[in-house]
Amino acid sequence: MTYGNESNRKQVLAGAHLMVQRGTFHILLGPNGCGKSTLLRILGGLLQPDSGSFRIDRPCGFVFQNPDHQIVMPTVAADVAFGLGRYKLREAEVRAQVNCTLEMVNMQEQAQRPTHTLSGGQKQRVAIAGALAENPKVLLLDELTTFVDADDQQNVLEAVKSVVGGPEQVTALWVTHRLEELEYADSASYMDGGKIQFSGSAAAVADYMRSLGARV
Ligand SMILES: Nc1ncnc2c1ncn2[C@@H]1O[C@H](COP(=O)(O)OP(=O)(O)OP(=O)(O)O)[C@@H](O)[C@H]1O
Fold this sequence. Notes:
By secondary structure, the protein is α/β, with parallel strands linked by helices. The protein has helices spanning about 35-45, 75-80, 90-105, 120-130, 150-165, 200-210, and strands spanning about 1-5, 10, 25-30, 60-65, 140, 170-175, 185-190, 195-200. The site of adenosine-5'-triphosphate has 12 residues, from helix 1. One of its GO terms (cellular component) is chloroplast envelope. Pfam families: ABC_tran.
């Protein structure tokens, strides 16, 4: 993947080979600027790569680092319902789907809350519920816990963990800088210089990170 034009080209991905098993929680780690978000955006169809290929289950739900870029409605329930507008569902069906997805992220008690009164982590869970409402096979989650406190971090991770797998075999690809989050993952990868440098179980990646001098 290359950004820029003829006079100012920047190659960001250089043969990033990533394989994630369906129905698992996979963490993607790597230093700032190594290309994690670019890879995620390509997988989510938000960016068109100039070469290479990939296969991914569809539909995919994408959740951004800053929930304020994703939450568009004044209340929690209205926001989760927003994306369902294009499916021509009956009102009762929308209500049922909203309730069900808010329960998945443990936000059912907050359905009528104004979204601007939520904490960062609660907003992330509303954004996740919005993505889940459309029954995605894959959740692409870009640094959701960067700006949240420890309690919210745990709540957001547990919300994602609880929807992974299951009868629908939902897969989560979670980009983060926070190494302690490896304990939630089934598997992980470390990316640097536009390439996947190492992939394996969460424990194997933790060992690899230690070998690079990280405290895990
Ligand atoms: N739209 C763009 N135009 C030009 N360069 C870009 C664009 N988006 C990203 N880049 C550059 O591509 C490189 C990879 O960015 P990317 O956001 O994919 O990295 P990242 O690993 O997710 O970084 P971080 O952990 O800091 O979010 C960076 O050098 C970034 O500045």
